[in-house]
Amino acid sequence: TKAPTPPTKAKEKASEPPLGRQNNKTAPPSPPRIISDLRGRSYQRIAFLGEGGFARVYEVVDQQGQNLACKVVTKDSLKTKKAKTKLYAEIRIHKMLEHPNIVNFIDCFEDEDNVYMSLELCTGGSLMDVFRQRRGFSEAETRYFMIQILGACHYMHAHSVIHRDLKLGNIFLDANFNIKVGDFGLAALIENEGERKKTICGTPNYIAPEVLFDTANGHSYEVDVWSTGVILYTLLIGRPPFQTREVKDIYDRIKDNIYEFPDKRPISAAAKELITSILTKDPAQRPTVYEIVDHPFLSQGTFPPYLPEAACNGVPDFS
Ligand code: ADP
């Protein structure tokens, strides 16, 4: 069978960051320098942090002098019912979550032109930014990142939330190199036990096979587990496992489970074994988050309690 045509909701570019604002010839006007909510609170906009497919994110300072991130969605982009439903789902889900490894959702409000979400500020940028500088990490550093990502994942699943877009670009870092999972724009809530989701969404390199190829059965929490396997491989090997130029070819490789462990980037047998078990095509056979955390790769070996700032530029010495 052929790979399906690229799904409408999946961002269609193979590499990160995802495509910027699409179908928009002109950039929307910047939000005001002083952003005010209806309760008389105001935030001073001080810097532009980045943009994704749906929002622009700014650094702001609140009246207490605290620096925050402010995610801005223009009301112009919320004219369709679908766009509104999507934003409300993001807000509803993100608001529910409170965990040291999840970007803290502080507040949301609106003015005439925009909807705003104030969020915990992640001054370390995304894991993608650090990854680009390092092109891969040591096993000890990877353990440090993975255990926090898995902690966030376990918490989300325990609160009936599937993130559905876990990837380096959506995993942020605070000033102390703590992981903060963010961007709940594709997250879904499982409202009835056993419920399966049918919307095809995600980012090509990280998308689980059942999302693309088992649309009749749908998907659930296991899609996030798959993405943690892609993240683990990427952190250690230096590029995503199924990556090729064409998105269609990525989907073919995901369907046929084609990826390799290159000789020029040797990793431990335990790491290989864990990646192989997570990247299992059948979601029912994939390990649970508990089983992953218990795996020798994560439960044995050097485990740094924190990463020094120098980790941005080279492998830190943990000896
Ligand atoms: P979208 O939902 O449109 O994809 P994201 O939530 O991924 O938007 O944010 C877009 C960009 O803004 C990110 O890639 C990052 O550079 C920046 N950003 C988002 N949230 C934060 C945050 N809490 N702290 C710092 N930067 C952030």
Key phrases:
319 residues; alpha+beta; six-stranded antiparallel sheet; globular; binds adenosine-5'-diphosphate; Serine/threonine-protein kinase
Tell me the strand order in the biggest sheet.
1-2-3-4-6-5
Distance between the termini: 51 Å
Mean pLDDT: 90
> Beta-sheet strand percentage?
15-25%
Q: What's the tally of helices?
A: 9
β-strand number: 10
Bound molecules: adenosine-5'-diphosphate
Indicate the low-confidence ranges by residue numbers.
Answer: 1-25
**Overall radius of gyration:** 20 Å
Q: Tell the overall outline.
A: globular
* Major sheet attributes: 6 strands, antiparallel
Helix content: 25-40%
SSE string, helix = H, strand = E?
EEEEHEEHHEEEEHHHHHH
Question: Class by helix and strand content?
Answer: alpha+beta
Structure report:
The chain is of the alpha+beta class and 319 residues long. It has helices at 81-96, 127-134, 139-158, 209-213, 222-237, 247-256, 269-278, 289-294, 296-299, and strands spanning 34-36, 42-51, 56-61, 67-74, 105-110, 114-119, 161-162, 171-173, 179-181, 188-189. It has a six-stranded antiparallel beta sheet with strand order 1-2-3-4-6-5, covered by helices on one side. A hairpin with a 5-residue loop joins strand 1 (34-36) and strand 2. The longest helix is centred in the middle third of the chain and has 20 residues, at 139-158. Bound molecules: adenosine-5'-diphosphate. Adenosine-5'-diphosphate binds next to strand 2 and strand 4.
